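Note to self: user wants both folds in one dump. Writing first protein now.
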Amino acid sequence: MIDDRHQYDQEHVSTRIIQEYVPGRQITIAHVIANPDRELCQRVGLENADAIGIMTVTPGESAIIAGDLALKAADVEIGFLDRFSGTLVVSGRLTSVEAALTAANLGLKDILGFFPAQITRT
């Protein structure tokens, strides 16, 4: 026996959203932290730095290329690079970190056809 008391109409239907990860060539984060707190530097394993640059790319292996572009463009040090997660962290003077992220962002876009990210700053 069918119970007609619970007819499904728009009021009673909930919306379910499913997100899927589709690998592409993109830069998902490009962010500069100016004048980071000393504790933050210690927590992420960096010496005291004037600035920290964070970039995440897909596919992950392209973090190696981003690191190469960043190092060739500016006087920065690589604090962390992971080819599996696509994470690149650089540190140095603020102008150098900004130049490094800009070069990596534009280099991946121009050379490999990546979708670039807006470089943000805190």
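First done. Writing the second protein, which came from a different request thread.
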Amino acid sequence: MAQIVETLDEMSSGLVDAKDLLLMSAEEEDQAAVDDVAAEVERLRASLEKLEFRRMFSGEMDPNNAYLDIQAGSGGTEAQDWANILLRMYLRWADKRGFDATIMELSAGEVAGIKGATVHIKGEYAFGWLRT
């Protein structure tokens, strides 16, 4: 908690400093100083994004890997096809995020799709991303 408060204090003072420097730079028409202010504001934005990430994924289990279980349920062929669509969607999502997704169990449907599947998704904050 102390680290979060410290980060917020740094960001607050950084914004005040950037505002003051921007006003002085505008009066003196100093483009180099304006560019420096823009770089500082970008650095503060990156700090804010990191802080938001820590807030979103503050759960005890969030940093861990995850198992994803998909079951077709009732509905016959259409439900099995939909389960297959979900499986492909999650596999692509995991790949796009840079996670390692391994199909641990797969039960093929009678006509199309799947009856069920279990996927092990490995990666930093995989559980947190799937939980949100």
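Dump finished. Worth passing along: The mean pLDDT is 91.
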